[in-house]
Design brief:
Helices cover 9% and strands 39% of the residues. With 358 residues, it is mainly beta.
């Protein structure tokens, strides 16, 4: 299913959005063209989920680039076991969940063979042992915000914090990055006739959030307490009408992976993408095997632990008076459609298996 200023912290989810969801017509990769560079990005973990790799070539600055189709993408472990990623369109290649379970303590690398038989490999990356989040919680706070007309207004934010040890399960110094995804429920009204009350479940699309990374540089420090990993405005109110979950994924990453994301933080800007002409030519952990072309991007190997916190209508309404848009006392023709048919709201999902946990 992890921030602050982008000059110092780049939104990882923004990168993923640019990498995985931009819909652009594919073109063939021209290796001899110095104006473009191949970019490979992937993340592999011990989570039981689909894993994704994206392959593109950079465009001019401000462009997310163009997709590279028909590549052979494989992950191999230190014992020689190999699994293939399957092309799913839009530059994405998917390793279905369960095809190669990630095991902390093992090393992995990615091998990409393009249709022109150029081969690119990542370095071997060791999957670190996990560090379990001890506690996840939120606060509702107001902050003064400056509008486009230079007026100061008071807006309410929900801020998510974690407590976590700064050592992995084997006692090693930890390096982290975090992702936060959101889900919520909404119960509609019975609006007459054969209509029945329905509970719908939704995911919140990824928003612009800076990349959150952390290095446990202080050997004496054992825990990270009340560390902020996420913040958002409490709008639209329909998302906070009932239960609203914040699911925090804590990625235990290697020192080299941390250093890569740290460089991306420094050179990125709010409108850029990993597929732009990256300033200072930041290279990752890929190398060309049989040509001299430079390749950008990174193959991240991480162990992941997930913890969550949930807000209720009562939590939010204690700070903000949430308007009751859907009232059974309002005539049907004056109600938004979602009040009677919650499934018309976007991003419907099946009921998550953790629903009801507190």
């Amino acid at each position: 299913m992890g921030s602050r200023s982008l000059i110092s912290s780049l939104l990882f989810l923004l990168i993923l959005n640019g990498i995985f969801t931009a819909c652009i017509d594919p073109i063939a990769f021209e290796a001899e063209d110095d104006s473009v560079k191949l970019v490979i990005f992937g993340s592999f973990s011990d989570q039981y989920k689909d894993h994704e790799v994206s392959i593109r070539v950079t465009g001019k600055f401000g462009s997310v680039g163009t997709v590279v189709p028909d590549a052979l993408v494989e992950v191999i472990d230190e014992d020689g076991n190999k699994a293939r990623f399957y092309e799913s369109g839009e530059g994405k290649y998917i390793l279905p969940k369960g095809e190669m379970p990630g095991i902390p303590g093992k090393a992995y690398k990615l091998i990409v063979t393009l249709p022109n038989n150029n081969i690119y490999e990542s370095t071997w990356e060791l999957m670190p042992e996990p560090a379990n989040i001890e506690n996840t919680y939120f606060e509702i706070n107001f902050r003064n915000q400056l509008t486009e007309y230079d007026n100061v207004i008071q807006q309410f934010f929900i801020d998510v914090f974690i407590d976590t040890p700064l050592r992995t399960s084997t006692g090693r110094k930890a390096y982290f990055r975090w992702e936060v995804d959101e889900t919520y429920s909404f119960t509609d009204l019975s609006c007459g006739g054969l209509d029945v009350v329905t509970v719908c479940y939704f995911e919140v699309p990824s928003a612009f959030q800076p990349l959150e990374i952390y290095e446990a540089f202080d050997n004496q420090q054992q825990n990270l307490t009340k560390y902020p990993v996420f913040s958002r405005l409490i709008v639209p109110y329909v998302e906070f009408n009932e239960l609203h979950y914040f699911n925090v994924s804590q990625y235990s990453i290697s020192k080299s992976t941390y250093e890569y994301w740290e460089k991306i933080n420094i050179v990125s800007n709010p409108t850029g993408s990993i597929f732009d002409k990256i300033p200072a030519g930041i290279t990752g952990n890929f190398k060309s095997i049989n040509d001299n072309n430079e390749v950008l991007g990174y193959f991240e190997v991480a162990s992941v632990t997930v913890d969550r916190t949930v807000s209720t209508w009562q939590d939010v309404n204690a700070k903000i008076q949430i308007p009751q848009t859907c009232s059974p006392f309002v005539p049907r023709f004056r109600l938004p459609d979602y009040c009677c048919y919650c499934f018309v709201l976007p991003n419907t999902i099946p009921k998550p298996n953790y629903w009801g946990e507190r």
